[in-house]
Amino acid sequence: MMGKSHLVISTGVTLSAMSLLGHAITLPAVAVAVVSSLLPDIDEPNSMLVRKAVPEFLLRILQVSLIGAGIYLYFAGIAEPPWNIALALLVGSVSFLPSRRLRHLVMLLIALALFAFADAYDPWNYIAACVLVVASIVPHRGITHTLYAVAGWGALLYFVSLDMNDGGSLWIAGSLSYGLHLLADSLTQRGITPLPPIPFKLRLKLMSTGTKKGNAVEKVCVMLTLALVLYVFVLV
User: Fold this and answer.
1) Distance (Å, rounded) from C-alpha 218 to C-alpha 212?
2) Which residues cross the membrane (predicted)?
3) Residue 214 CA: distances (Å) to CA of 36, 47, 197
4) Which tens digit of pLDDT belongs to each residue from 19-64?
5) DSSP type of residue 192
6) Any idea what DSSP says for residue 233?
7) pTM of the model
8) Which end of the chain is least crowded, N or C, by CB within 10 Å?
9) Radius of gyration over alpha carbons of the chain, in Å?
10) Which of 67, 142, 145, 71 is nearest to 102 (CA)?
11) In this predicted model, what pLDDT tens digit does every residue of 133-184 receive, in sequence order?
């Protein structure tokens, strides 16, 4: 399912369900629901979340920086010939990796920066850094598309929000929105494997992302979500 559909469906259903159950809809809860609706796809470099977090201009900056670093290593005299040439070519050649690999590299560099320089945002810096490291090395629809990830993300939000004045509903918003993303992906032909290494696949085979039928199913789900939001927040 497309990222924009995940965003509308998971966020809309989550906030509607929380309102019906009597949980406060705070700004942090809305933000967590939005992020969680896209978070499972952080393991896909071309997903909506990763493309927004790591836009094309950052990739271009990284490529230019790597080429510049290669030139510097060649002339700086750090290594004797021919090792300076080998080192320069090794560093410079990274800039020609495919966009997917470059995004993974940017994610790792951001994670290192968060670990090293973002102490003021403790513990969110470490949470974000760990998520980026895991997402850059796991395959798409792997561990991030499991019930383990839902439980882990919910537990993380629960313990982080214990000292927050308006953080009581964060873990509910996060785990519910995350879980709805997985449920939406179970509608596809590929489906998900919710409890690896158990080989059971949850897939209803109602659609394939990007196809005419897939687009139609997504539109129906989005319309139903908007109808639910209208009912809960306007009509009730």
Assistant:
1) 10
2) 57-75, 102-118, 146-162, 216-234
3) 22, 17, 29
4) 999 998 999 899 999 999 999 988 877 777 787 877 888 889 989 9
5) B
6) I
7) 0.80
8) C
9) 21
10) 67
11) 877 777 777 889 999 999 999 998 888 888 777 667 899 999 999 999 999 9
